[in-house]
Amino acid sequence: MNKLPFSINLNKVEILKQLNAANHHIGELKGILKLLPNPAVVLSLINLSESKDSSAIENIITTYDEIFKEIVTKTPLGGKPKEVINYKKAIEYGLELIKQKGFISTNILVDIQNIIELNKGGIRKLPGTVIMNDKNNEIVHTPSKEEAEIRDLMQNLEIFINENEDYDPLIQLALIHFQFESIHPFYDGNGRTGRILNILYLVLKEKIHQPILYLSKYIIEYKDKYYELLRKCNENLIYIEDFVMYILKGISETSQHTVDLILRINQSIELTKSEMRKRLPDIYRYEIVEHLFSHMYTKNEFFRDDIGISRATATKYLKLLEKEGFITSEQVGKEVIYKNIQLLNLVKD
Fold first, then answer.
1. Number of independent structural domains in the chain
2. What is the pLDDT of residue 112?
3. What is the CATH number of the domain that holds 217?
4. What is the pLDDT of residue 115?
5. Under a CB-based contact definition with an 8 Å cutoff, are residues 266 and 36 in contact?
6. Which residues carry a binding-site annotation for ATP?
7. Which residues participate in catalysis according to the annotation?
8. Could you tell me if residue 28 is inside a domain?
């Protein structure tokens, strides 16, 4: 494998044009987040959506309904929804670490992979790992087999992440993502760890201040192209230009999609506030709206603790909210959970 930095000039007109577009759209996304009264509401939802989409790339397929039941019920089932929740925890853990330390290290990536996979496998010591297109079982790339070589490549990648400034961070991101996935340092969880590395790097380089831009949705939509480019670039590095263009386009499209989602969520919040004031003036508090849009799925315990009311008052409020169509309820075992269907449909779309 080639080490970074690659001996290829990426200051090409087409790449620079796409870079300008990507920077413009990511700048819009960064700016719009500041307009929200409580950005944490949107961030939580987008992080969960990313966790779901990134896991889906690895054929860990689940639904929002299953994920939220795993979160809110007292008798979680585990399985695929739990894996998605672990991914979200890994994002949060990684962000906390880079804010503390100000750099991204191999050890941090090992810790993230441990949370995703709940194992202590660490860097690969045995051969047999391949990157495969799960649609047709084509082997896209056979990464390094020797632990010493993997560690050497990871050390080189670590230096590049933290010290190299040859290109704009968005171009650097494409190179880092390609190299990490090509090294494939772990037995499992490489794809998910690599996609978390993307967001950590963007925050580290202050392209965004919050974990708001994720490429998993884009990779799912253009999965065949992604695998094709991984294969071609590992055969001949001249194709790295195409991979950089792929990632830059993904940043542009994902930024625009996320801006649109944020606007629609904010519009839904404002509409809910207005309607709740009209229909339930005796109980209306902005904290109630905020809770419903922060959790999507809730129950009496979460609702009353968050709003600061008694169990009886929470029961009364939740029944009124359901009667007026702001939420729907569902019996899960011995528990009743409440869903913000309006928000759930926005995120699904």
1. 2
2. 96
3. 1.10.3290.10
4. 95
5. yes
6. 58, 184, 188-195, 226-227, 234
7. 184
8. no
Contact 28, 255 (CB under 8 A): yes
The one-character DSSP state at 336 is: E
CA-CA distance, 251 to 64, in Å (whole number)? 24
**Axis-axis angle for helices 80-101, 106-117 (nearest 10):** 160
Judgement on whether residues 105 and 159 belong to the same structural domain of the protein? yes
Q: In Å, how far are 67, 85, 246, 308 from 302, measured between CA atoms?
A: 16, 18, 42, 10
**Whether residue 224 sits in one domain with residue 303:** no
**DSSP-assigned letters across all residues of 108-160:** HHHHHHHHHHTS---S--SS---EEETTTTEEEE-----HHHHHHHHHHHHHH
3 state SS of 338: strand
Flag whether 275 is in a domain: no
Over residues 324-339, the mean pLDDT reads 92
Q: Is the pTM of this model over 0.70?
A: yes
In a domain, 93, yes or no: yes
Residue 39, pLDDT > 90, answer no
Measured over the CA atoms of residue 288, residue 293, residue 294 and residue 295, the dihedral's sign is: positive
* DSSP codes of every residue in 206-264: TS-SSS----HHHHHHTHHHHHHHHHHHHH-GGGHHHHHHHHHHHHHHHHHHHHHHHHH
Give residue 58's pLDDT. 85
3-state secondary structure at position 332: strand
Do 232 and 319 belong together in one domain? no
Helix (H, G, I), strand (E, B) or coil at 328: strand
**Cα separation of 141 and 131, whole Å?**
5
Q: Is the pLDDT of residue 237 over 80?
A: yes
**Are 82 and 154 contained in the same domain?**
yes
Residues that constitute the known binding site: 58, 184, 188-195, 226-227, 234
Predicted confidence (pLDDT) at residue 126 exceeds the cutoff of 90: no
Which residues, including other chains, have CB under 8 Å from residue 63's CB and lie 6 or more apart? none
